[in-house]
Specification:
The complex is a heterodimer of chains A (about 725) and B (about 170). Chain A has about 725 residues and is α+β, with helices and mostly antiparallel strands. In chain A, about 25% of the residues lie in helices and about 25% in strands. Chain A folds into 3 domains: about 5-190, Aldehyde oxidase/xanthine dehydrogenase, molybdopterin binding domain (Aldehyde Oxidoreductase, domain 4), CATH 3.30.365; about 220-295 and about 345-435, Aldehyde Oxidoreductase, domain 4, CATH 3.30.365; about 300-345 and about 440-705, Aldehyde oxidase/xanthine dehydrogenase, molybdopterin binding domain (Aldehyde Oxidoreductase, domain 4, 2-Layer Sandwich). Chain A has a 7-stranded mixed beta sheet with strand order 13-14-11-21-18-19-20, with helices on both faces. In chain B, helix 2 (about 95-100) packs across helix 5. Chain B has about 170 residues and is of the alpha+beta class. Chain B has 2 domains: about 10-85, Ubiquitin-like (UB roll); about 95-165, [2Fe-2S]-binding domain (DNA polymerase, domain 1, Orthogonal Bundle). Chain B has a 5-stranded mixed beta sheet, sandwiched between helices. The chains are: A alpha+beta (about 725), B alpha+beta (about 170). Chain A: InterPro entries: Ald_Oxase/Xan_DH_a/b (IPR000674), AldOxase/xan_DH_MoCoBD1 (IPR008274), AldOxase/xan_DH_MoCoBD2 (IPR046867), AldOxase/xan_DH_Mopterin-bd_sf (IPR037165), N-heterocyclic_Hydroxylase (IPR052516), OxRdtase_Mopterin-bd_su_IorB (IPR012368), TAT_signal (IPR006311).
């Protein structure tokens, strides 16, 4: 898409007073993205993305294009630009972008992608702006540019004792040509990047002033609570709202459609003056659903089908050497079968959206979302309005974890506002959030492994049997091919095993499925790294030494990671009786991390004594934030390993709220120590997700070490081992 | 007593005292205090998380004691002093807020008003807590981002700060 935006409109949108300096990047349409452009004097902004605005009569604005979910982008993304301008964040106004076409297609938070894809790109924006400001000052003062320095929002020439603020220089700088390859700052001079900078959103989140989607109000709005079919795939027959209409405050009862992946589910919405009245009205609704036979669905029976499907060959995901031959010939073989559950995202802020479909067919949306840009584009197609007529105000997200990649709750609110002719804020209850999905799918895994006469691994096979996120979201999904989304990481581990054949078996599923923090790696790392442990045990080898023996120098990242884990966990130091330690690592699209977990036998159960985590990043922005993300990922991973997961019987989700879909409590949280490998360089790995996958296998490997019991199915009851 | 459990269909004029300010509101007496605070008093810092006293995101103080406002009928708060996150301090001076900033506790931040209010009430009762006591006091407040390791440190630090300079 090539989009033109008048400069005037942009300035109005950004409340910029004009005649200042605007630096951005070209390539909104995805071609040649990253060319620096001076947008200060363009009559029209065509396919460009302004990121830093220096307003002669105002302040300095930097856009954060990655919605803040708790992962720290509100600090990290603006810091990339501010660093090169020698600006501390207190001198900058950070604006959260809302999918504006002129701010580029990568306005989303997902895939642990923010820093690893933006690090150099955004630094160049800041560096270009700085170079232009310095040039403007040096020309005005008749001094060499290299004698000028920048600090605290000013250009200084110390020899002649002159200084000028960026704002004073902005108009002159705006007339200069933008440097194509601005000189980036020497990392040793960094004031923000790689430092433990305090995040600007923390004070707002410590006094209740941070505005989340659920907090936004506009005059004249109605609140909505929506009844949806309790059985996935059911259709609306009719509803009786006579009792609902008697509830004081209820204004309208109307239907809407929930677009989630490839599915469209109808709902009946009660609109009222306040949210409590909408919920009471909803309770009084009588709705008839046609379950379409889906009320016969049982997850227990489905799991049995997956076990049956495991007997089929499946399609090849990856091969190396000749697995069949090597396996047949090997003197020592083992097989194992692993199972994992569906789980919910359960961010603390339930899904919600305030939408206003105005009379002029402009749509205004206030919501917590991970994907503002794609909302503008997909809603433009769905509702036949121009993308520029859709305004998305992205609020602080009360958690995302992948759930807010899917704007189903935004669709509902938009449709309700159109029908009601008023702004509508639809808020899901926790029960809605827990029961309606989308869920992380389960994966079942069948393994074969073989050791040679020297007890070295010679053959390895991981066969994944699962429904598919791709099939749930893409109507043109091809079942005859392997599904990289569902075999994520299994063929990417650095271990040198000469013969490998990984397979995929697809299973149909009618329940909405979704990416969940660290996606399929969250289940496959468990089975894969647990089975490797089984191979180590079979080989009579120490699990750490066994892994290291399969890593050569070509794969120095994984080797370095395991060596660091070995060192920080004192791996070779004996543990007290009844204790055990386990190790696991996982590399996938988002990055690389590993854990050593120590457990002890306590009564009938197991206590997690300690988690050591190492994450490999290359380069990082904020070590404190990295530690926070890894700590949080481990807490979330423990929940997924030991809490009960989602069960569906008679077509309905059994769990409904935190009492029967619990998440880990502070009392259950072990001490966690995080170590970061970040020695610099351009090869940058992600932060938000990689901390999660290694926990479950490291924990279960530790339980095996302590008890001799191998856990092959998640979740498990840690109080009964 | 427990008259809020009756199925009352009329609206009631209720005076709520929130952060030492009085608010006259006309609401369904069964309405949970949470929605009265958010939608009628207009203070949005107190959050909706579960609606059944399971997560603690809605925690406010009623006469100094932490309560789950999502499961407390508004009528039960009528003659009580309600404190919400907005009333803690004018400029983040409260030692718990100071400690929250020092340890950069919040991630998404949604549960943190409830975490902070629980910690404030707890430290008032127990100014010298052990680590086990901190865990026990905070265990009703869930955090999906997993900020627990930092909550532990921050509550401990807040206790020290309060001792050095009572708030």
């Amino acid at each position: 898409m090539r989009t033109t935006l008048s400069r005037r409109r942009f300035l109005r949108l950004s409340s910029f007073t004009g005649a200042g300096l605007i630096i951005g990047l070209n390539g909104v349409d995805g071609k040649a993205f990253g060319q620096l452009v001076n947008l200060s004097n363009d009559a029209e902004l065509v396919g460009v993305t302004p990121f830093v605005l220096i307003d002669p009569k105002g302040g300095i604005t930097i856009y954060n294009t990655k919605p803040e979910l708790g992962q720290g982008t509100f600090q990290s993304i603006p810091s990339l630009i501010a660093e090169e301008l020698d600006l501390t964040l207190d001198l900058v106004t950070i604006r959260q972008s809302g999918g504006q076409i002129e701010l580029g297609a990568d306005q989303f938070s997902g895939g642990s992608a923010s820093i690893r894809t933006s690090y150099t790109k955004y630094r160049k924006v800041g560096a270009a702006a700085r170079e232009m400001l310095v040039t403007a000052a040096s020309q005005a003062w008749g001094v060499p540019a290299q004698e000028c320095i920048t600090e605290n929002g000013k250009v200084l020439h110390k020899a002649s004792n002159r200084s000028a603020t960026y704002q004073e220089l902005a108009a002159t700088a705006a007339k200069l040509e933008v440097p194509k390859e601005p000189k980036l700052k020497d990392p040793s001079k960094f004031i923000l990047l790689g430092k433990r900078v305090k995040r600007p959103d923390i004070p707002l989140k410590s006094n209740g002033t941070a505005v989340f989607g659920i907090d936004v109000e506009v005059p004249g709005m109605l609140y909505a609570s929506i009844e949806r079919c309790p059985v996935f795939g059911g259709k609306l027959i009719s509803f009786d709202d006579s009792a609902t209409k008697k509830v004081k405050g209820v204004q309208q009862v109307i239907t809407c459609e929930r677009l989630i992946g490839k599915y469209r589910f109808e709902g009946v919405a009660v609109l009222a003056d306040n949210y409590w009245a909408a919920v009471q009205g909803r309770k009084a609704l009588k709705v008839k659903w046609d379950y379409q036979g889906y009320d016969k669905f049982s997850l227990t029976a489905y799991e049995q089908q997956l076990r049956e499907l495991a007997k089929s060959e499946g399609v090849v995901d990856h091969t190396k050497g000749d697995f069949d031959k090597a396996y047949a010939a090997a003197p020592t073989k083992l097989e194992a079968f692993y199972e994992t559950p569906m789980v919910s995202h359960s961010p603390m802020e339930p899904m919600n959206c305030l939408a206003h479909w105005k009379e002029n067919n402009q749509i205004e949306i206030w919501t917590s979302t991970q994907v503002p840009f794609s909302i503008k584009n997909s809603f433009s197609k769905e509702y036949k309005v121009k993308p520029e007529d859709i305004t998305v105000h992205v609020q602080f997200n009360g958690g995302g974890f992948g759930r807010r990649l899917y704007p189903d709750y935004v669709h509902e609110a938009v449709q309700l506002s159109k029908k009601a002719g008023k702004p509508v804020k639809a808020i899901w209850t926790r029960e809605d959030d827990t029961q309606q999905g989308p869920f992380r799918p389960m994966t079942f895994s069948a393994f074969k492994g073989a050791l040679d006469a020297n007890k070295k691994p010679v053959a390895f096979q991981h066969k994944v049997i699962s429904p598919s996120i791709g099939a749930a979201t893409n109507p043109n999904y091809d079942k005859t091919k392997t599904d990289g989304g569902m075999t994520e990481g299994i063929s990417e581990q650095a271990y040198e095993i000469p013969n490998m054949k990984n397979l995929y078996v697809h299973a149909d599923m009618h329940v909405p499925l979704a990416a969940w923090r660290a996606v399929t790696s969250t289940t496959l790392a468990f089975s894969h790294e647990s089975f490797l442990d089984e191979m180590a045990v079979k080989a009579g080898a120490d699990p750490m030494a066994f892994r290291l023996s399969m890593l050569d120098s070509k794969h120095s990242d994984t080797k370095r990671l395991l060596e660091k884990l070995k060192e920080v966990s004192n791996w070779d130091k004996p543990l007290p009786a009844g204790w055990g330690r386990g190790v696991a690592q996982w590399e996938f699209f988002a990055g690389l991390a590993g854990n050593v977990v120590e457990v002890s036998k306590k009564g009938d159960g197991i206590k997690i004594e300690k988690v050591y985590a190492v994450i490999d990043l290359g380069t990082m922005v904020n070590p404190d934030m990295v530690e926070a993300q890894v700590e949080g990922a481990i807490v979330m991973a423990i929940t997924a390993a030991i809490k009960n997961g989602i069960r569906i019987e008679n077509g309905k989700t059994i769990q409904s709220n935190f009492h029967n879909n619990p998440i880990l409590k502070i009392t259950e949280t072990p001490p966690i120590e995080v170590f970061i490998l970040a020695e610099g360089g351009e090869k940058i790995k992600g932060v938000g997700e990689p901390g999660l996958p290694p926990l479950a296998p490291a924990l279960c490997n530790a339980i095996f070490a302590a008890t001799g019991k191998r856990i092959r199915r998640l979740p498990f009851d840690i109080n009964k081992i | 007593m427990l008259n809020w459990c009756l199925q009352l269909s009329f609206m009631a004029a209720i005076t709520l005292t929130v952060n030492n300010k009085q608010y006259k509101i006309d609401v369904d007496p069964q309405m949970p205090l949470l929605w009265a605070i958010r939608d009628f008093v207009g203070l949005k810092g107190t959050k909706f998380g579960c609606g059944m006293a399971q997560c603690g995101a809605c925690t406010v103080l009623m006469d100094g004691n932490p309560v789950r406002s999502c499961s407390t009928p508004v009528t039960a708060a009528a003659n009580k002093k309600i404190s919400t996150i907005e009333g803690l301090s004018d400029n983040l001076e409260h030692p718990v807020q100071q400690a929250w900033i020092e340890f950069q506790v919040p991630q998404c931040g949604y549960c943190q008003s409830g975490q902070i209010m629980t910690a404030v009430a707890f430290l008032k009762k127990n100014p010298n807590p052990t680590e086990e006591q901190i865990d026990a006091a905070m265990q009703g407040n869930l955090c999906r981002c997993g900020t627990y390791p930092r909550i532990r440190k921050a509550v401990k630090r807040a206790a020290e700060l309060m001792k050095a300079k009572p708030f």
